[in-house]
Amino acid sequence: MHDEAAPQAPPQTEAPPAPAPTAAPEACAAPEPYAAPTDDGAQPRFPAMPASEADWRYRPPRTPSWWHRHARTLRLLAVAGVLVLCGVVILALVREQTGTDGLLVGLLLALLPVPLLVAAFRWVDGVEPKPWSQHVFVFGWGACAATLIALLANTFTTAWLAGSIAGSASEADLLGAAVVAPVVEEVAKAIPVVLLFFFRRRYFTGVVSGIAVAGLTAAGFAFTENVLYLGRAYGGDDTGMPYEAGASATAATFVARILMSPFAHPLFTGLTGVAFGIAAALPHRRRRWRAPVGLAGLLTAILLHAIWNGAASQASLTFLFVYALFMLPVLGTLIWLAVWSRLGELRTVRESLRTYVAAGWLAPSEAWALGTARARSLARDVARQGRGPDAARTVAEYQHFATSLALLRARAERGIAVSDFHAREQELLHHLWTRRATAAPPTQRAAASLSRPAPPPRLPGPPGPYGPPPGFHRPPGPYGPGPGQGPGPGQGPGQGPGPGPYAPPPGPGPYGTR
After folding, report:
1. pLDDT at 129
2. Read out DSSP for 174-203?
3. In 282-420, which ranges are continuous DSSP H helix?
4. Radius of gyration over alpha carbons of the chain, in Å?
5. Global pTM?
6. Which of 80, 219, 271, 408 is within CB 3.0–4.6 Å of 301 for a Cys-Cys bond?
7. What pLDDT digit, counting tens, does each position of 178-218 carry?
8. Which among 175, 152, 178 has a CA at the least distance from the CA of 164?
9. φ and ψ at 426, to 5 degrees?
10. How many CB atoms lie within 10 A of CB 234?
11. Comparing C-alpha atoms, which of 507, 351, 482, 357 is closest to residue 432?
């Protein structure tokens, strides 16, 4: 027997050497700062800096160009130029439809309600008067730009409806008046309201501001529209009446548009202004509601305008029914809201200024007088009779700055973010301080003449989330903070959350009393 050969083991192969561990990349170390010279008076050397000025990478800013130095003036001129151009174009279009005689008659008759409407809306916004330039802009936009947009859009849309959808020209006119015109006109009139809401929030602070801006825009729009309708009626082209006018189309149009419904456009657009005013007064934490509230106001204005135009296209009884039972109550509600909001602003002024009474800036009777329309007027009269028109102007400025100060504090206490509150507060207090010697005596005399007891001062409470660290003290210095003063609101008896008041200089003032 042969022995079987033992199986041979497979050849041993050496395992490949394990790869050497790679070193982790070192973190990029931040460069060390270039060391300053050790000697205080030594001139530093910069050897790595380009030797030639032409190779510098950083250069001092250039002197602002002429365009940058005059940017504000150029913007104003551009806006004025656009409005004037729109006015010239709309004037030419109206003259083409009415003739020269009709244009002149329309201008004369349409001008009659304008001073009353402008005065009414200026009065509504008179607690904290806004710049005349702002009101001129919105009135000019309504009279020139908005009417041009509406005239062109309504004309083209009505022509398109007549050729595409409506069966006759009368149906196209009805659709244009009841559906197209309200949308186009209210959107065109809402443009300046939206612009001021976003870009001039300092002057657009609440319902009062919204009603004034929207009302003045609509008053300008109604003026140009009345020129067109009255001119047409005078020329015999179109009576512009919702019912039979009788023998004189011009007289009937004058009664319907100037006497019966000069408030129509201000009423519609006023609802947009109210909505954006509410949105402007919302605190920062509720800012997501601003767009829905503004849009709801615009849609309500469009709906009300559509109801008005639809009723005006029907029989006379339908129009009179809508006019008496719907439009007049809505107008009364808007007037009540405007007056109530104005009184609310005055009440806010009285309450907010009590904080500055406690801080020593004002006498107790001044807070009430500066927040009461009758006392404000009497104080100006007293100053005018005692020291002339310059003193009355100083008192008016004093009232204006005190109102701005009170409303600024009220906005901060409601939670509306005011990033530079203390800078604004101290600037306004400076204006009050420099006018107080002239304005305080007639203001206090007006309060005494009306026999109004002074309210107790509004004591500032301990600081809140916007306030300084706890602790109330008056550090030395001419303008040290008073009790509760700091960079944020306090919360205490008689005071909502808001920054503490800036304190006046210690000791008696130059006029002997505060």
Report:
1. 76
2. HHIIIIIHHHHHHHHHHHHHHHHHHH-GGG
3. 290-312, 316-322, 328-358, 364-370, 373-387, 389-413
4. 35
5. 0.73
6. 271
7. 888 999 999 999 999 999 999 888 888 889 999 999 999 99
8. 175
9. -70, -30
10. 22
11. 357
